[in-house]
Design brief:
413 residues; 10% strand; 53% helix; globular; three-stranded antiparallel β-sheet; hpI Integrase, Chain A; 18 helices; Double Stranded RNA Binding Domain; 3 domains
């Protein structure tokens, strides 16, 4: 009994010590220098200047202001997300906290007031709120959500009120998406719309009850003749000045890396002398640092781009993220030029893996190339030399660039 009391006391003391350490006067510099918690965890920091204002920090680097106050009326804490820092400056967050504090002291519930505004909330506003309050703080793949919202959900439904969107409007959109892309793509976009309704609107969800399309595993990769046409199209478009899209597609094919990682590639993460690209753990899908082998062809592209680099990103842009976003239109233009149908950017990843397999690479090497982290696969290649992976990638790239008539000869050897 005594041991339990001591243990409980120590735990409480540690918790109080941590809260004290995480309570200080907020300044922009101190908020900027807060260290990130481990992947999948969150830390909270309290402002001494404006009590009730706190900062939630996720392992992915998202920092969001929140208001927290005990409600005498409801006999529980009231927590309201104010916005993401630094988009919402500290002074503005403090002003919002003062307003909410007055509202709570007057017996009002800011959460109920927030719900009352949903009758005039548009689908676009709902999606923005979901992205800031839930996706960015909690998901490593929030950039995928941001892309789907910007390119597909907002153009279709963004101006509608959340109460106006119905199943009869969603189903035709689903069918059109399946026809243009795939059933799986339609399902992913519907799932994102549905979770936004669940998290933000809560009282109803027009996506509930809509049947998803049956999905079958996709093993799409580019065949020899398709690759020839792709390389020809890329060369032609490069000569016409479409440099960023062409380089992005080529690097995606040559590295087998995930779209989000190639788009957010930074110069500081590249070691061109050792043919390596190190993807930080906070940007990797599985939360662990990933080393990507860079073939000679990939190095050539990067060295050429580095000659005129003026940004920390390999593919810079003037957008909010600072780097290129999914070039859907550019990819469609490339496919049309190459005469290739039903191919996703993600299929470039499958293509490299397929040609590695064709050139004799074992599954363990392919898994290492793609950054797979399953227990079964990890056991096989935990100590595998990066040189082995690079050699496999070089062989696959050489095979992909081999003319069709010679591919057959090479594969028979």
């Amino acid at each position: 009994m005594g041991l339990k009391n001591i243990t409980g006391k120590n735990f409480k003391e540690r918790a109080m010590a941590k809260e004290k350490k995480n309570t200080f006067n907020f300044t922009e510099d101190r908020l900027r220098n807060i260290s990130l918690p481990d992947a999948g965890k969150r830390e909270y920091y309290n402002d001494t200047t404006e009590k009730g204002l706190r900062l939630a920090v996720s392992g992915t680097g998202v920092k969001s202001f929140q208001f927290q106050r005990w409600s005498p009326e409801k006999q529980r804490p009231v927590i309201v997300t104010l916005g993401k820092w630094p988009d919402l400056p500290l002074n503005s967050a403090r002003e919002k906290a003062v307003e909410l504090k007055a509202s709570v002291n007057a017996g009002k519930d800011p959460q109920l007031d927030k719900k009352a505004t949903r009758d005039t909330l548009t689908v676009g506003e709902m999606l923005d709120q979901y992205l800031e309050d839930y996706s960015k703080p909690n998901k490593r793949s929030w950039q995928d959500d941001e892309t789907r919202i910007k390119l597909y959900l907002k153009p279709a439904f963004g101006r509608m009120l959340v109460t106006e969107l119905t199943e009869s409007k969603i189903v035709p959109w689903m069918n059109k998406t399946k026809k243009s892309f795939s059933g799986a793509t339609a399902n992913r976009r519907l799932a994102l719309l549905s979770v936004a309704y669940t998290k933000i609107v809560k009282t109803f969800n027009p996506c509930k009850g809509i049947d998803r399309f049956k999905e079958t595993p996709q093993e799409r990769y580019l065949r020899g003749d398709e690759l020839e046409r792709l390389f020809e199209a890329l060369g032609a478009l490069r000569s016409e000045g479409d440099i960023d899209n062409v380089d992005y597609v080529e690097l995606s094919l040559l590295t087998g890396a995930r779209q989000a990682n190639v788009l957010a590639m930074r110069w500081n993460d590249l070691d061109l002398n050792f043919n390596q690209w190190r993807v930080p753990g906070e940007e990797s899908k599985n939360g662990r640092p990933l080393t990507v082998a860079l073939s000679a062809d990939a190095i050539a592209i990067l060295e050429r781009r580095k000659e005129t680099a003026s940004s920390v990103f390999v593919f810079p842009s003037h957008g909010k993220s600072g780097h290129l976003q999914e070039p859907f239109k550019g990819w469609q233009r490339i496919l049309k030029r190459a005469g290739i149908e039903c191919c996703r950017l993600h299929d470039l990843r499958h293509t490299l893996a397929s040609y590695q397999s064709m050139s004799g690479a074992p599954e363990s090497v392919i898994g290492k190339t793609l950054g797979h982290q399953s227990i079964e696969t990890t056991r096989k290649y935990t100590h595998m030399a990066q040189k082995t992976v690079l050699e496999s990638v070089e062989k696959a790239v050489a095979l992909m660039k081999t003319p069709v008539e010679k591919k057959v000869v090479n594969l028979k050897k």
